[in-house]
Automatic annotation (TrEMBL):
Biased composition (Polar residues): 673-682
Region Disordered, annotated ranges: 1-48, 354-397, 671-712, 753-772
Pfam families per record: PhoD_2
Basic and acidic residues compositional bias, start-end: 374-384, 692-707
Assigned GO CC terms: membrane
UniProt superkingdom: Eukaryota
Domain PhoD-like phosphatase: 175-333, 415-496, 500-658
Entry protein name: PhoD-like phosphatase domain-containing protein
Amino acid sequence: MSTNPPVPTASTTSVAEHEELANKVAQKAPQPDPAQPVAGANEGKDVDQVVDPQRAAQDTSERNGSSKQGWQLLCGPMLKYTRLNDDGSRWHGSVLIVLRAPPESGRRKPDEPSCSLNGKDSRTKVVHLFTERDRIYWRFDLEVALGDDEREVWYSIVLPGQQHDKIERSFWVPKVSQSFRIMFFSCNGFVPGAEKQVNGLALWNDVLRLHAKSPLHVMIGGGDQVYSDGVCEPHAPLCPWAEELSPLKRSKIPFPLELRDKVDDWFFQHYCDWFNVSPFREANAQIPQLNIWDDHDIVDGFGTYRDAWQRAPVFMGVGEIAWKYMSLFQQHLPPSTTINGLIYDPASFNPVIAPAQRPTPSTAQEAAPTSRAGKSEEVEKQKGLTEGGEEVELDPSYVRHPQEGPYIKHRGLSICTSLGEGILFYGLDCRTDRTRHRICYADTYQAMFDRLENDLVPGKTKHLLLLLGVPIAYPRLVWAETLMTSKVMAPLRLLNKTFGICSSLFNDFDGKVELLDDLEDHWAAAVHKAERNHLVQRLQTLSYAKQVRITILSGDVHLAAVGRFFSKAKFNVPQEKDHRYIVNVISSAITNAPPPEAIGDVLNTRNKLHRMDHYTDENLMDIFEESVNGSARRFNKTCYTTRNYCVITRSDPSAGPEATTAEELGEHYAKQEANQGEQPKTSLFGKMMRKDKRDGSPPRSGVEKGEISGGTGTIAKNVKGAQVEHDASALAPATGTKVADALNISLRLEVDMKSPEGKTKAYGFSIPRLER
């Protein structure tokens, strides 16, 4: 079945009008400074100089020596982790660099850089990933033998003709049969104007301090690794297009080659600028990444607007370009098509895949579920396409979606890989398939469960970390959705469309209320409720069948919280034996400015004991008993609006100290009792907000909160951790449990968002393994 949009008829007059408008937009669009060297250019630069679209493409050639003849480093090095081999004895990953070719290189085959690793039985392979104009992307595939001790691996890169000028960095690998120390983050960028509210990328300084004390083996990016919203801002290529007040006219403007090239240059420069800014640049070179993308990697709300708008030529063109640079910079993969791989039909105002450049792969051959790494030759050679239709091999850690996305004409890429002993990771690409009424195709879910059915080993795999970009256990805001779609907003929408009044209330794309795309993006939105509940039920069934504890990681919402599903109190199931107990760790944002504290308070008032189905309840955990400054939090203990990130370790001697002194835990370590008489502390405003009967009632006891224990002391309850100066806080603080295989979670919240140090306070809890 074809996924290409239908081609509507259009009169010759209307086509000519829109082509004329498109040409005006393309001519007015500013041209970013093409491919200037940026390596080192952002060191010491204020963050607003990096995110300002006008300054993002400034000429930095003199500072970086572009006047010299030779190869120039534009971006990198950037590490990526891919997988362990079947027996867990070898680590596989890659490092990416982007170079500018010297003028005299012409059209000859590019000279190869080289990369070497220290240590016995380590291997490297250079891969010419992609070339566009004078930009050349090189990937070095890395393979490291694991030993009896975790160790620091040094790598050295030599550019062509520069043998005496090496780039030397290091990363850490675990020992054999050790679980990874994991860092999780999301929302690593700024919406326009947010950079003024905080001190740049300060939390990455905290990550590097933590890494220096207790090295991290991987950092998981939960989406929005870059913020590309600035492509519509002043001095950016799509500013003239965004200034057209009528969403209808804007949706019909074609995407001519001239404008497309300017947008492509903007994305390239933006990626180089952002991945070169300190201290994120240093983290990229030392800690291997594992990324899944989300809307801001494309543009705010992509996939959640009306279908007619999503199929607008400019919008689909931006999606294609965003896919290209996500593939290159975040996945170290060649893009499936170049920027010129689309043909734009002015009669339909929709992009059409160019058959000669984009042959459709055999659905029967590629849609088969992927098996565990190394199990079959087919897994080792999943097929992708370069810009010329050339086949490339995908690493077996990838799970390619069976269908192309509706608005991004590529098959989504999810990731399934081991994170050491007892931990399997699955990152579900929830953006490529997304529409306003669907998050993922049914066969995308089936591909995920087929892969998990094969890779989860009962008795060996203790924990499954499932990455979903947007929280799934999160308070409902049905009243806000109803208000924003009601007729009350119609007069304001008309004023905005006609005169540009109340422009901050409506988005720049389809003219809807600005926050509506965020609400409809949520799993808890009314339109996604059935899909959400079905997914959770399938996960619970998988947990029971494979005897594995499932934990969900999410970002997106710019606050820290912990949601959870669990069996109803009437079933009296201890937490460690409850296969329905699924925790949703919500950590966002590591860089973007947080929302006002009142937003967290409103969400807290919506924290009901909600009935998901006959067997399952859900709510948010009371984890934030005190503020980052040490004062008691009497009202809102569930949602903390400050910048943050998360550290995850497994309770195991090989993962580090078992924890936990009273000093490290703080005074309020994990409670072991059921807290039967505990009543939630709620303000008068909160009590008024709780009267929505559809959302249930407040939990009346610890049992109903999901905090019942069978005596092993693994209750998922608040622990106030220590400041980062304490050695043990470099690990995820535990809850005092000595139970093997518990997953220790540490939410690390910024103490002062104006400080360049980025110091954090840790809030921790444990998630028990699933027992029979």
